[in-house]
Every structure is written in structure tokens, then in C-alpha cells.
Write a structure and sequence with these properties.
The complex is a heterodimer of chains A (114) and B (116). By secondary structure, chain A is an all-beta fold. In chain A, a hairpin with a 2-residue loop joins strand 5 and strand 6. Chain A is globular and about 35 Å long. Chain A starts with a strand and ends with a strand. Chain B is built from no helices and 12 strands. In chain B, the strands form 3 sheets. In chain B, strands 2, 5, 6, 10, 11 and 12 form a 6-stranded mixed beta sheet that branches. Chain B is mainly beta. The chains are: A mainly beta (114), B mainly beta (116). Chains A and B meet through strand 9 of A and strand 5, strand 6, strand 10 and strand 11 of B.
């Protein structure tokens, strides 16, 4: 158990639906991340938040909208997704955004877009 | 652009034996960090070991050690006395040392099977 909790564990949605993924950490970390893990591609960084401020958006389409209301919670709001967006979405946190910091990952949300 | 390559999609090892997972990377930077992460069936990725590029000494963590060859841009992971719980996907990752770069670049992973 890494201390990072993601819900839901599985999600099936249609292309016209709106849904949200939730990530929670109580490790006292100041940085939180969203990663996408597809079957055919290496893990890709999507967004980085440091002290609740978004510091990186890795060219992610606008149909993915992150939100970090406080340092313990991170959301990923989804709308009008495409089937190719089906993937495992992993949340991670770290004490700071320093390069050597250890990332603590959640178990991910397996998303299927029909 | 930096890239990380793991050329072994799958490896198999007998319990209690030693196995080495390969990783090469490409970068023009001199300041960077390298990591090995493990992803068991629970999907929760866990840091196994990390190495600062400026350190010549290879990192070790209990049964896990690395062979860091900076000139060859190689960063292999050795698992000694393999255990059934070591069965997982293993990802090699790279990150630039600059604070302005938050991106951890991952390889495609190696699935490790442990035979009892």
C-alpha cells in the first residue's frame, strides 16, 4: 500500500458521457501527477500539480480536465472521450517535484470508452 | 529528445536464481536520474531503485542492484535470490536533473516471470 488511493478502480463510459476520476493522498506530499498507461505505449505524463498549481500540461487534449482543489486531492474530469482514450490512468504523488523524488502511485483507474 | 529502451518484453527466472533486466537510454544531458519501478498485478507501481548520473557507484537495495554504465548509456537491474513476489512488470525510467522538467520518461517495460 503506497498511501495513494484512486477511485473508481474500473470505469466504462460512452463517448458522450461526463465522468471524473479521483485521487487522494494523505502523505503530506506537495506534488501530484496524472499518468496514462496504454497497452501499446509507455507510460505518459499528462499533468503535474505542485502546491495545487498546475505546472505541466503535456499536450493533453482539452477533453481531459484536471483539478486540484487542495494538496491531498486530484481529479481528472473526462468528457466526450474517444475509444483511443481507453487506458489505465495512474495518479502519483511525491514530496516535492525535485528530480530525485520517489513517486508514490495509486492502483489506477482502468477506463474503457465505448 | 530523451528515450528509454527496454529490449526484453519478457524474462523468466527460477526462484532463488539471479536475473538481469536491460535498459538503455539516449540523452545529451549530463545531469539526470535513472529509476526502476515495479508494477505487480495490483497495478500499483513501486520504486525499486534509483541512481544519480553523477555517482559512479552502482546503487543497491537489498537483493536489487544496478549496473550503471554511463558512457554506454546502459542501466540494467539485477535481482538476486529471486522470489515469487518479484513477478511483475519492471519499468526503467529517466528524468532530467533540471527542476523545470517534471517528466519521468518510461521504457515499455519487461514482464518478469518467476518459476517455482
Amino acid at each position: 500500500e503506497t498511501g495513494v488511493t484512486q477511485t473508481p478502480r474500473h470505469l466504462v463510459m460512452g463517448m458522450t458521457n461526463k465522468k471524473s476520476l479521483k485521487c487522494e493522498q494523505h502523505l503530506g506530499h506537495n506534488a501530484m501527477y496524472w499518468y496514462k498507461q496504454s497497452a501499446k505505449k509507455p507510460l505518459e505524463l499528462m499533468f503535474v500539480y505542485s502546491l495545487e498549481e498546475r505546472v505541466e500540461n503535456n499536450s493533453v487534449p482539452s477533453r481531459f480536465s484536471p483539478e486540484c482543489p487542495n494538496s491531498s486531492h486530484l481529479f481528472l474530469h473526462l468528457h466526450t472521450l474517444q475509444p483511443e482514450d481507453s487506458a489505465l490512468y495512474l495518479c502519483a504523488s511525491s514530496r516535492t517535484t525535485d528530480a530525485l523524488e520517489k513517486l508514490f502511485f495509486g492502483s489506477g483507474t482502468q477506463l474503457s470508452v465505448l | 529528445a530523451q528515450t528509454v529502451t527496454q529490449s526484453q518484453p519478457e524474462m523468466s527466472v527460477q526462484e532463488a536464481e539471479t536475473v538481469t533486466l536491460s535498459c538503455t537510454y539516449d540523452t545529451s544531458e549530463s545531469d539526470y536520474y535513472l529509476f526502476w519501478y515495479k508494477q505487480p498485478p495490483s497495478r500499483q507501481m513501486i520504486l525499486v531503485i534509483r541512481q544519480e548520473a553523477y555517482k559512479q557507484q552502482n546503487a543497491t537495495e537489498n537483493r536489487f542492484s544496478v549496473n550503471f554504465q554511463k558512457a554506454a548509456k546502459s542501466f540494467s537491474l539485477k535481482i538476486s535470490d529471486s522470489q515469487l513476489g518479484d513477478a511483475a512488470m519492471y519499468f526503467c525510467a529517466y528524468r532530467r536533473g533540471m527542476d523545470s522538467s517534471y517528466k519521468l520518461i518510461f521504457g515499455s517495460g519487461t514482464r518478469l516471470l518467476v518459476r517455482p
